């Protein structure tokens, strides 16, 4: 080999070792820290929305509108995080990961590029081709490190996120069942309501349900079954009042 060829080859070997050493040591730590930070932040966002959904579904002031807003927010965060992680997204996670972890390896890569260009211009084509090949091999090893470390840290978080998705699905399933039961009960109650406007007929109906007259207050008879008391006016009943009394006794 010519003296220049020996010199350029030694410089390249040194830079190649520095680049690989960086990614096996400091770069590895930076990958771990970045992936953990991104995964943790998104997991916490998803957990917080799940907790809000759970709170709303258990609330006495539950509204479908508020629940739907939270479901949309939950789905949006989950879907956007999935898009961000996709390797098809050229402006997503992979881009941010590389930019955040490059560190001093960027300047080493720039030096390697200059060295390969210098080798070409020095008409050392064979050596330049060899440098290109070794550079691609190094990039392959770095890519393997990136993917391996990323998967080791990200996969447990992905499992936790899937657990949160399953929790939300179960919460919504239980709430839907609860709403269905209430609606069915209300429907049954409405179908059982009779058109009773005669207070004497109402007195007989309430007794049929196990209520007994305990006292009279003014023009109202007070009936009780030992758990609750229901006043029944002793005059013609309006439709709304008749419905209310029947709901109380059923």
Ordered list of secondary-structure elements with their pairings:
Elements: H1 3-24, H2 26-58, H3 64-85, H4 93-101, H5 105-121, H6 125-192, H7 199-208, E1 212-217, E2 220-224, E3 229-233, H8 239-249
Antiparallel strand pairs: 1-2, 2-3
The radius of gyration is 37 Å
Q: Report the major sheet.
A: 3 strands, antiparallel
Query: Any low-confidence stretches, pLDDT <50, length ≥5?
Result: none
Number of strands: 3
Strand content: 5-15%
Q: What order do the SSEs take from the amino end to the carboxyl end, as H and E?
A: HHHHHHHEEEH
List the domain count as a whole number: 2
Total number of helices:
8
Mean pLDDT: 91
| Anisotropy-based shape | rod-shaped
Give helix % range: over 70%
Overview of this structure, please?
With 250 residues, this protein is mostly helical. The protein has two domains: 187 residues, Up-down Bundle (Methane Monooxygenase Hydroxylase, Chain G, domain 1); 51 residues, Metal Transport, Frataxin, Chain A. The protein is built from eight helices and three strands, in the order H-H-H-H-H-H-H-E-E-E-H. It has a three-stranded antiparallel β-sheet, covered by helices on one side. Helix 1 packs parallel to helix 6, helix 2 packs across helix 4 and helix 2 packs parallel to helix 6. The longest helix has 68 residues. The chain is rod-shaped and about 120 Å long. The N and C termini lie far apart (102 Å). It holds the Pfam family HicA_toxin.
């Amino acid at each position: 080999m010519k003296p220049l060829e020996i010199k350029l080859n030694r410089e390249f070997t040194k830079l190649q070792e520095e680049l690989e050493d960086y990614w096996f040591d400091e770069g590895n730590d930076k990958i771990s820290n970045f992936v953990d930070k991104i995964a943790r932040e998104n997991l916490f966002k998803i957990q917080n929305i799940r907790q809000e959904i759970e709170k709303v579904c258990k609330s006495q002031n539950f509204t479908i509108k508020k629940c739907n807003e939270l479901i949309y927010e939950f789905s949006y965060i989950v879907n956007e995080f999935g898009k961000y992680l996709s390797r098809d997204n050229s402006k997503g996670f992979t881009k941010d990961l590389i930019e955040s972890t490059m560190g001093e390896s960027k300047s080493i890569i720039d030096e390697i590029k200059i060295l390969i260009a210098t080798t070409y211009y020095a008409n050392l084509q064979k050596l330049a081709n060899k440098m290109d090949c070794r550079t691609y091999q190094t990039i392959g090893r770095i890519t393997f490190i990136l993917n391996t470390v990323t998967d080791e840290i990200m996969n447990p978080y992905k499992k936790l996120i899937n657990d949160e998705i399953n929790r939300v699905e179960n919460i919504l399933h239980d709430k839907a069942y609860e709403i269905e039961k209430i609606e069915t009960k209300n429907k049954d109650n409405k179908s059982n309501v009779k058109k009773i406007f005669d207070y004497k007929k109402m007195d007989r109906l309430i007794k049929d349900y196990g209520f007994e007259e305990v006292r009279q207050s003014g023009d109202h008879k007070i009936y009780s079954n030992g758990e609750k008391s229901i006043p029944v006016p002793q005059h013609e009943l309006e439709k709304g009042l008749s419905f209310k009394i029947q709901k109380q006794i059923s």
